[in-house]
Design a protein that fits this description.
Elements: E1 12-16, H1 17-27, E2 32-35, H2 42-55, E3 58-61, H3 65-77, E4 82-87, H4 88-104, E5 110-116, H5 130-136, E6 140-141, H6 146-163, E7 167-172, H7 173-176, E8 179-183, H8 214-232, E9 239-241, E10 248-253, H9 256-266, E11 273-278, E12 280-282, H10 286-293, E13 298-302, H11 308-318, E14 328-330, H12 345-356, H13 365-373, H14 391-406, E15 411-414, E16 431-434, H15 439-447, E17 459-464, H16 465-481, E18 486-492, H17 521-527, E19 532-535, H18 540-551, E20 556-562, H19 566-573, E21 578-582, H20 597-602, E22 607-610, E23 615-618, H21 628-632, E24 638-642
Parallel strand pairs: 2-3, 2-4, 4-5, 5-7, 6-7, 10-11, 10-13, 13-14, 15-16, 15-17, 17-18, 18-20, 19-20
Antiparallel strand pairs: 1-8, 6-12, 9-11, 21-24, 22-23
């Protein structure tokens, strides 16, 4: 992480977008930060937590996004500026509280950062949270540069306090994780003093923070949006580049501003194509947009993911007088811009070329022809897989064998996390459902009540340890209360591993690296009155037997697969668990009869197939030394020795 706390106003630092957002929060004088890790938003909180003690503010990894948002709101109510950050899925989790909070108003500045993930690079879905801001009447900003990411965040706190409402910043993966220059501003020097005494301005007997007179408050919220629109009209986060009269006007926002600029420059159309870049996304600066609509009869809207700007601007145009500009729009509705996935400069170039009826080749035709002739065999497939030594691979191997031995066509329900790779070959295709966090247990709870309809298949629900605390506990309790029938398997690797090993209530450490009480999932589950077994997934024999035993019984059962994430262990111990090698005399290769069980099926990254020798071998640079492969080799050809 870059030094976001550098006290050197006017100097320039190289920040990723998330660090720039964190720096903006520091310059705004925050006193409270809370989040739940979720790529691509994670580094915002990691950056803030790393300097929280030094800068005298509080930071926490909360149990889930809803709780993170509620804790930040509590700080706001007591007069402390607060920020919460999450990925797009997290905004779904907070929506109930968010829908009520926007009606009540806030205390001190409260900013919500949503990092969307176009193309679902590290998510279960792609989703455009701008729609939520419009739906709930929340002022929304979207940075198009790294400098804006910092400056917008700082300004958002002032805006929130001026409007008495939460403000939202939408980022995307290519802003969050790309890197650029950021000029630093001043860091405030002030002591935070919290005190809760908010009383509604309209009566001395009611609190402001309650759903009273909600219809009247809703009316006031619309008035706040009107005020926000007035503030947005002259905003420096909106600008135009191009001729006074253009053959084509591009309206864009966020990272698409850079794609549009690159596309226009590549086509050498700077004198013919104008770009209106918007940073204040909702409510739209209507007068500014109306002014620029007169520049061209052709409008191309470039944005990710949904046609948010496109639809909102069309609504604006529909309300204009007949004599006002009514141009032709191009974008997602016309098929010139994809309504899904990430954009890039080439896509924008193609759209502009189609509209302007010009020909453009990104590379010579001869080069393209040669590229098409290259055999695909030169591009080996790179499937997503578990790390070498990951305990999840052993867990799903045991699950696969247990289900097969049980013989009743059982299956696994899951959700998002490292273990979601078990949808594919990495986990032997064992996971059959994957939605949101905790959904595996919720779905299993429903499936486990279908006995009256002849359903007899065993159901195993898997969740990670962080996911257990985040969203699985209610589903587990629901299954117990309604006497469902399934086995919950908690994959306890002692970290929120998928997003970078952040702590959670079961690790005994806080975001500010302070030791804390460990919330024991074993004790918690046992207190609910269900049988709990703890297994080491590297002990394949015992793990398989434990799963078979659990499936043989009715009701709710919990099996905890406890083995520390290999990356965490290796960083601490700096040596492998075992020294592993293949005995070439024992390895029978293709003649083994196992159909290359070790390299083709088990598929650990530390195992290789030596084509020349026709035998398996260990890649010592990758092997973590877990030794599990030694237990699955039918010939005993893989040897593990204590280090």
């Amino acid at each position: 992480m870059a030094g976001i706390d550098i006290d050197a106003p006017g100097t320039t630092e190289l920040f990723i977008g998330n660090e720039a957002i964190a720096r903006g929060a520091l310059e705004a004088g925050i006193g409270f930060a809370a989040a739940y890790p979720g790529t691509p938003s994670t580094e915002i909180m990691e950056s803030l937590a790393s300097v929280a003690k030094k800068m005298n503010f509080y930071a926490e990894w909360s149990v889930n996004e809803k709780v993170a948002f509620e804790t930040a709101a509590g700080a706001s109510f007591a007069g402390i500026r607060a920020i919460t950050a999450m990925k797009q899925n997290g905004v779904n989790v907070i929506s109930d509280f968010l829908a009520n909070l926007v009606v009540s108003g806030i205390g001190a500045g409260l900013v919500l950062v949503s990092c969307d993930d176009p193309s679902a690079i590290s998510s279960s879905n792609e989703q455009d949270t701008r729609n939520i801001a419009k739906w709930l009447d929340i002022p929304l900003l979207e940075p198009g540069t790294f400098q804006e990411a910092k400056d917008m965040t700082k300004w958002a706190f002032d805006l929130a306090e001026e409007l008495d409402t939460i403000c939202m910043i939408r980022s995307v993966t290519r802003i969050a994780h790309a890197r650029g220059n950021v000029t630093l501003g001043e860091l405030p020097r002030k002591e935070h003093k919290a005190h809760f005494d908010e009383i509604a301005s309209f009566t001395p007997t009611l609190t402001k923070f309650a759903p009273v007179l909600s219809a009247w408050k809703h009316q006031q919220l619309h008035a706040k949006l009107d005020k926000a629109q007035e503030i947005f009209e002259p905003s420096p986060f909106n600008w135009y580049r191009g001729p006074d009269k253009a053959e084509l006007l591009i309206i864009t926002c966020g990272s698409c501003w850079l794609y549009s600029l690159e596309a226009v420059n590549a086509l050498k159309l700077e004198s013919k194509v104008g770009i209106l870049k918007l940073g204040t996304i909702w409510p739209l600066p209507q007068k500014l947009i109306e002014k620029h609509l007169s520049k061209s009869q052709k409008i191309l809207v470039v944005e990710e993911i949904d046609p948010f700007l496109e639809g909102s601007i069309k609504e604006l145009v529909a309300d204009l007088p007949p004599a006002s500009p009514h141009p032709t729009f191009y974008g997602k509705r016309s098929g010139h811009i994809n309504a899904f996935g990430e954009l890039n400069p080439d896509m924008v170039i193609e759209a502009i070329a189609r509209i302007m009826d010009i020909t453009y080749e990104s590379r010579p035709a001869e080069y393209s022809k040669k590229a098409e002739e290259v055999p695909l065999t030169y591009m080996p497939p790179r499937l997503m897989t578990f790390c070498s030594g990951c305990p999840h691979r052993a867990t799903f191997w045991a699950i696969k064998n247990a289900l097969r031995l049980d013989g009743r066509d059982g299956f696994v329900t899951g959700d998002i996390g490292c273990y979601s790779m078990a949808l594919g070959p990495a986990g032997f295709c064992q996971v059959r459902t994957m939605y949101c966090m905790g959904a595996g247990a919720g779905i299993a709870s429903g499936l486990g009540k279908l006995g009256q309809f002849g359903f007899k298949q065993p159901v195993l629900a898997v969740c990670g340890d962080s996911t257990f605390f985040h969203a699985t506990i209610p589903a587990l309790i629901n299954g117990i209360y309604n006497q469902s029938n399934f086995t919950l398997i908690i994959l306890d690797n002692n970290a929120t591993a998928m997003t970078g090993f952040q702590p959670h209530p079961g690790t005994g450490m806080t975001a500010m690296e302070e030791p804390t009480k460990v919330v024991s999932m074993d004790t918690l589950c046992a207190s609910l009155g269900v049988p709990v077994e703890v297994c080491d997934p590297f002990d394949l024999k015992n793990t398989t037997e434990t799963l078979l035993k659990a499936m043989s019984k009715d009701g709710i059962k919990v099996v905890i697969m406890r083995r520390e994430c290999e990356l965490v262990r290796a960083r601490r111990e700096k040596k492998p668990l075992y020294k592993v090698h293949v005995d070439p005399d024992k390895c029978l290769g293709e003649a083994c009869g196992c159909d290359r069980l070790c390299t083709r099926v088990f598929g650990c990254l530390g195992l290789e197939w030596d084509k020349e020798a026709g035998k398996a071998k260990i890649d010592e640079t990758v092997c973590a030394g877990c030794g599990v492969c030694a237990d699955i080799c039918p010939q005993g050809a893989i040897i593990k020795e204590a280090v």
